[in-house]
Design brief:
The complex is a heterodimer of chains A (about 325) and B (about 250). Chain A is mainly alpha-helical and about 325 residues long. Chain A has helices spanning about 5-25, 30-55, 60-80, 85-105, 110-130, 155-180, 180-190, 195-200, 205-220, 225-230, 235, 240-255, 260-280, 285-300, 300-315, and strands at about 140, 230. Chain A has a single domain (about 5-315), classed as ABC transporter involved in vitamin B12 uptake, BtuC (Orthogonal Bundle), CATH 1.10.3470. Chain B has a single domain (about 10-245), classed as Rossmann fold, CATH 3.40.50. Chain B starts with 11 loop residues before the first strand and ends with a helix. Classes of the chains: A mainly alpha (about 325), B alpha/beta (about 250).
């Protein structure tokens, strides 16, 4: 194995063990309750960047994929009392199918038109779910959590660990793409789709693949949300805020490397959680807006761009 | 001029190709064959259909009628990436580098996707392959530079290098010399000539006549979407209809 890979996988194992240990030692549920949201945004931001960052197709429909994940879980739980793992797996499958659908949009649409189409898609799906009585319709649906699985003593702690697993899955997938020829192909088609095609890059196939993987991960990241809130309703599950937050996190972190969205999600997620507790949950939207403006002006390539620029400067000085 | 060896079919055959945009007929029943390793000049006034023909060969455009055959295979329905993998490479009239990448990475895209299984799988070998192409193009010193820092002539060479990295049997150079100085034209021309030497057929679209005359074994002149002359450079230049198309009657 490559030295980089050894470091990465050791890091992942340490992270998961640390998460597991905290769930076994810390009594208070609140840190897990708040941490779950941050981990969730890490999954979403990393998954979003596969399509939005590498391929350059800005998906504004993160909320569509997220909501589809939530409602896949709701449906499976209500109809079959399916366990959490099954809920997540099926959500990923449905998300990847939806991703393929979005992928076919890229045949005809680029840039702003693609983004608008993804918003429209979210609205269509939300409207359908709103009118679907079995999953609660517009009023939403209450869910009774099943008993927790040992070694966890509370459901929220278990969800926290599950979400950490999803973070590792999402990051490992994105990293694998970034280091493979698929990553280079996506980067090429982002720069110039026609030139990429003529250089042998199967652009349509790569776009479909990126859409399907990104969609699967976002929906999988959304699935645990149903059990986390013990409740789901269309206007929260398909809230446009998911799209905006995830976009902001990816851009603020930088999309040139998988670590960017991770950092962005930690930075914004922690800020949002702290503001929601100390001031109000409305203020965090304002702060998100201000941070986005600052980064777009000051660091258009995000935190990664800042780091790379300062490294270049340091190299030039020597 | 000796004709192509009879036992071997043409590398590329354009068969009754017609392409129109709305009511405008850009290519009208074009037939031509390109031999393996041939240096082929394509000339014609602006708007005569040269780039449309190139787009039909490389798969960017689908013709309304007619077929494109590469080797024995009908490639008319194939998208550009499939054609690139079969050995058709091209440069663009206005250079289209992958801007977020270095020069070497631009070539790596081609090696990753088009060069196929015959190129060694290991990354270090591909890097060596890319570097050797860049060395031949005189761009080795720029390998790790971002493409945005390249000059116009370097961009043209980079595009040819990237096209060569796909391992083509046919290279189409669409006005690679436009806007270059006289000495730069010679540089690029020498590069293209050297490619012909290794069994790569080259179709060169060019307005610079000295370059076309020096380069081509055969020249074809298009006017208003029709072939008005094909032959040796001297024959085509002497053709009355060619002179008329360029100079007016």
């Amino acid at each position: 194995m490559h030295r980089n890979s050894i470091a990465f996988w050791s890091g992942a194992v340490v992270f998961l063990v640390a998460v597991l240990l905290t769930t076994q030692t810390i009594r208070n549920e609140y840190p897990f309750f708040a941490g779950f949201v941050i981990l969730q945004f890490m999954v979403l931001a990393v998954a979003w960047s596969i399509l939005g960052g590498y391929a350059g197709y800005v998906n504004f429909g993160t909320n569509a994929f997220f909501g589809v994940g939530v409602y896949s879980a709701v449906l499976l739980f209500k109809a079959f009392e399916a366990p959490l793992a099954v809920q997540i797996a099926v959500a990923a499958l449905v998300g990847s199918l939806l991703g393929l659908g979005v992928g076919f949009l890229t045949l005809r649409m680029r840039g702003i038109f693609f983004s608008i189409a993804t918003i429209a898609l979210a609205i269509i799906i939300e409207t359908s779910v709103t009118n679907w009585r079995f999953v609660g319709g517009a009023a939403g649906i209450q869910l009774q959590r099943p008993p927790v699985t040992p070694p966890f003593d509370s459901y929220v702690k278990m969800l926290f660990f599950v979400q950490a697993l999803l973070v590792v899955t999402a990051v490992a997938t994105t990293r694998a793409i970034q280091n493979s020829r698929i990553g280079r192909g996506l980067q090429a088609l982002r720069d110039d789709e026609l030139a990429a095609e003529c250089t042998g890059v199967p652009t349509l196939r790569l776009k479909l693949l990126a859409c399907a993987i990104s969609g699967a991960l976002i929906s999988a990241g959304g699935a645990p949300s149903a059990m986390y809130l013990q409740y789901a309703d269309p206007s929260s599950a398909f809230n446009l805020n998911y799209s905006i937050s995830v976009l902001a996190m990816s851009l603020i972190g930088g999309t040139a490397h998988w670590i960017g969205p991770v950092l962005g999600a930690i930075l914004l997620g922690v800020t949002q959680q702290m503001l929601a507790v100390t001031i109000s949950s409305e203020v965090n939207v304002l702060v998100l807006g201000i941070m986005l403006v600052l980064f777009v002006v000051g660091a258009p390539n995000g935190l990664i761009g800042l780091v790379r620029r300062s490294r270049l400067r340091a190299r030039d000085r020597t | 001029m000796t004709p192509a060896i009879a036992s071997e079919g043409p590398l590329l055959r354009i068969d009754a190709l017609t392409k129109s945009f709305g009511g405008f007929v850009a290519l009208d029943n074009v037939n031509v064959e390109i031999r393996k390793g041939e240096r082929f000049g394509l000339i014609g006034p602006n708007g005569s259909g040269k780039t449309t023909l190139v787009n039909c060969i490389s798969g960017v455009l689908r013709p309304n009628r007619g077929a494109v055959l590469f080797g024995e295979e009908d490639i008319t329905p194939l998208p550009p990436n499939e054609r690139a993998r079969r050995g058709i490479a091209r440069s663009f009239q206005i250079p289209r580098p992958f801007r977020s990448m270095t020069v070497l990475e631009n070539l790596m895209v081609a090696l990753d996707f088009a060069a196929g299984r015959n190129v060694l799988e290991q990354a270090s070998h591909r890097r060596d392959a890319a570097l050797s192409i860049l060395t031949r193009m005189g761009l080795a010193s720029k390998a790790d530079d971002p493409t945005v820092t390249l000059t116009q002539v370097e961009l043209r060479k980079m595009e040819l290098a990237r096209a060569m990295a796909t391992g083509p049997k046919l290279l189409i150079s669409d006005e690679a010399m436009a806007g270059l100085s006289a000495s730069e034209v010679d540089e690029v021309l020498d590069l293209l000539m050297s490619l012909g030497g290794e069994d790569v057929a080259v179709i060169m679209i060019e307005h610079i006549m000295q370059a076309v005359m020096r380069f081509s074994e055969r020249v074809m002149c298009l006017d208003a979407g029709r072939i008005i002359a094909v032959g040796t450079p001297a024959e085509v230049m002497a053709n009355a209809r060619v002179q008329e198309a360029y100079l007016g009657s």
